[in-house]
Each structure stands twice: as structure tokens, then as C-alpha cells.
Amino acid sequence: MNQHHRSDEANPHYYYPYNHKPRSGRTNLASCAVATAFLIAVAAAAVAVYYFLFRPKPPVIVVNGIQFPSFSAVNGAITFHVNQYVTVTNPNRGEFSHYDNSLQLVYAGEPVGIIYIPAGVIVGGGRQRMSAEFDLQKYPLPPPGDTMEIETRMKLAGSVRVLKLFKHRVESRVECTVWIEVTHGTVSGYRC
Prior knowledge:
Number of helices: 1
Shape: elongated
Strand content: over 45%
Radius of gyration: 35 Å
């Protein structure tokens, strides 16, 4: 009977599981480097997604019109009623809660008056039409001549929810210069 006997000398490629060399420190270091690079790449991707998709943006205010339904300039004082119509767009995915809103009138660099606009909510990606009305009664004024220049300064401020977890404060302003024909009390033009 022929018996075949294996020996290490006869087969140098024979694998002995208990007789292998332990991993070197270089292999462990390389594994840690790859894992760290992967985690940095995931963190960078998360920041990029947040920056491009969820970063809070201020609302966009577009002035649709400014009217002075009543206007008079007599005896060194002006009296008028002004309406400013705007469309506010929320460019964020989350809702915009606005609560710190105002419309200020300025003549010759000096504030004439301010009104506060009621708070509200605009859904993510939504639009809302708003109007602000201002009544000014007998404000002392040097004679303006044929045309009078008034500025309106509107501010909308509030907060936007990001990922339904975080609140970020955002603010938007729009300033308009309005030219009024004093003799007729009509708006000859405005620029925002």
C-alpha cells in the first residue's frame, strides 16, 4: 500500500492558518487613512447638500405699485395717504414666519413716520401679496416745489425652519424713491 505523506518541504504553497505573519502597522495605517478620507468625503457632501438645498435665503420683495389716493400740500404742511403693494416670495423649502415688519417714510433724509405690518407665515416656495397703508396728517414741510421726492423703506424679518429642526433668522429690505407731482398729488414715477 502506498501512502502519501504531505510535508512542508514537499509542498511549499500549503497554507497553515496558525502559522501566518501578523499584519504590519503600515496596513493598519492605510485602513485608517481610507476610513478617514471616506468620513471627510461624507461630511463634505453633507455640507454641500445643506449649502445648496437647505441654506436659508431671505425673502424676495417685489414692489408692484405705490399710490397716493389723497395728497395735499397747503400752508407749509403736507397731508397724504400712501399705499404700497408688494409681492413677497419665500425661496426656501421651509415656511417663513415674518414678525418684525415695517414701512418707513423718509423725506429729505429725515424719517417722517413708520408703521408696523402684521405678522404672518408664507409656506415654502410660496408667494403672498401684501399691502401697507400709511396716513400722514399735517406734517410741517418746507415748500417742495413742483415735484416732491419721498422714500419708502420696507423691512420684512422673521425666521425660516430648516429640516424642521433649526430656525434661522432672515431679513429682507426694499427701498423705493417716489416722485410726486405736488399740484395734482399724483405719482409721476418710482424706482426701487
